Amino acid sequence: MLGVEAIRTAQEKFGKKPLTGEQVRWGLENLNLTAERFKELGLENELQPIKISCADHEGTRTGRIQTWDGKKWNIASDWITADDSIIAPMVKEAAAKYAAEKNITTGCLMTN
Fold it and tell me: Are 6 and 27 contacting, i.e. CB atoms less than 8 angstroms apart?
């Protein structure tokens, strides 16, 4: 669903035509799925709203635990929010190390 919505977002900007990889990436990096959009998609209350950007590829840091009873998934927790004060520095450090090892420049490929 996220991939299809990213393509839909990219086509809104670049036209309803076959897209390049960079255009689809732009769609992913500009994805904004509201509660209303989830309702339109039949996914009401399944996910929290997600707004992704080049600087924030996660868009949301919430989740909940589900269990499988052999027939269906059952929600087993309330929404849980990640602690960015702990996770963000770890992600930044790992990303910087990876970029240095691979000799790559970080940042968006396409501007908004």
Answer: yes
Q: What percent of the chain has pLDDT over 90?
A: 70
Stretch (H or E) spanning 81: strand 80-81
Q: Count of alpha carbons within 13 Å of 65, Cβ hemisphere only? A: 3
- pTM of the complete model: 0.70
User: Smallest Cα–Cα separation from 56: which of 85, 99, 91, 80?
Assistant: 91
The range of the structural domain enclosing residue 43 comes to 2-102
Dihedral, CA of residue 40, residue 60, residue 2 and residue 92, to nearest 10 = 170
Measured at the alpha carbon of residue 103, what is the angle toward residues 86 and 21, in degrees to the nearest 5? 85
Instruction: Assess if residue 62 is contained within a domain.
Output: yes
In this prediction, residues 78-103 reach a mean pLDDT of 90
